[in-house]
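Question (not urgent): is this output format expected?
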Amino acid sequence: MSDIAIEHTHEVLLGILKEIDALCAKHGIEYFLDSGTLLGAVRHKDFIPWDDDADIAMKRDQYEKFREVAGELPEGYRLVLPEEYGGYFFDFVPRVLCMNAPLRTETEEDRAQNNFQNRVCVDIFLLDEAPADPKKFSRMVFDQKVIYGKAMAYRYNKSKHVHTFSERVKIGILRICGKLSSLKKIYRRQTEISARYRGKNTGYYCLSNAIVRELGLRYPGEAYAKAIRLPVRGVPLSCPVGYDTVLTAMYGDYMTPPPEAERHPTHSDD
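Got this back:
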């Protein structure tokens, strides 16, 4: 992706974030910048220069409020739920899309999934309470991975990602099991697993709808005790007060940029 394309994408992403921020402020909804977008705010006061997507996180009750009022987003912006990808499984992440920006790609797969996964968007990760007991948390993560594997039965392109032989065997078995359930039931089961400790005041949170390799991370509740405002391109946006704890868990020495060879956009072929 060229520098000009990245710059345009950043402007579109900032526009989406500003609309999310305004709607959340109007309705008293709390959100936090997350993942690379949080890292960009802290390290660059901007987006990461080579990043081409954006992420926020919401506690489940806050997301439920946001979902109720998302219809108030201005024309050209839309909240898309995981269930809306034309009967296919993409992931468990709701997104706010900019419907006016050019499509990143336009393939048969894109069209089959309603051209939702190929637009500039802000991903919404859900912060669910996680158990303090490591064994119980490991069981929760295991259950999340199993349900993700079952959902892969409904992927449009089942060979899109490269896996080791053992991973292919495990995923293959789970896909067979997944076909025994409807995708609707799989989505419902994923929510049940994610909200298993809702209201338990466990003292920990996890991003319950993250991709598989990020499901094992758990954060102390005080990291998300309140939101603080940090600038992205001069625009103040909400970040977790414990951003250092969150970013250290995600990236380790997060203030040191990766080597040049590892600086790739998420949608590198777009």
